Amino acid sequence: MSSTIRAEEAAHFGKLAAEWWDPKGSSAMLHRLNPVRLRYIREQLNQQWNLDEHERRPLARKAAADVGCGAGLLCEPLARLGAEVVGIDAAPENITAARLHAEGQGLRIDYRTGSIDVLGAEPFDLITSMEVIEHVDDPAVFVRGLAKALAPGGLLILSTPNRTPLSRLAMITLGEGLGAIPRGTHDWERFLTPDELRVHLEAAGLEVLDVTGLAFGPARGFHLSEELGLNYLVTARARA
Q1: Helix (H) or strand (E) holding 209
Q2: Which residues of the chain carry a pLDDT beneath 50?
Q3: pTM across the whole model
């Protein structure tokens, strides 16, 4: 598996490391997205693995990796759910911030700098990668690397913006233009449609189990939806 890191992307996100855990800082949008992502992940885990929805540590004895983890916004909840977590990010500044924050929370998380090339040989039961695939050099290579790191029957959960006029307006024209998202975060041309992502997943030997939209409304904020025009989440499974 070769690296799919784009150096300019790693540098951009590395500059945001100091504010990653500030819910009012440059990563404020991620703090608003994270609860919705977590709800989706938990729902999919419950459904696909027949877990008890009331179990507080349903991932005990499970190995999980978050690829493109930033400073650990998703790694920490996964660890609290009981998983042995590996967090990977291309920006060393983010990994430093992630380690410091996890230590302050009393959490043991294995943070590594790099891309799919540092996942290692041990297979993972769960791999997540949120808002990452649109930033990598080669999405097909990236997905193949993630698929190879999954245990038989393991789950891969991704989220990414759709390439639509709505996403361009909401995320770039308004989001970046008005400062809600750091300027230069997105390149609309690199967004993937659900059909394009499905092709990559199936070519890597994965079975697509679910595609759910992540929408936004003034009254509800970010929420799961059947509408895929803005952003969407995908769950895929490695064949046993």
Answers
A1: strand 206-217
A2: 1-2
A3: 0.92
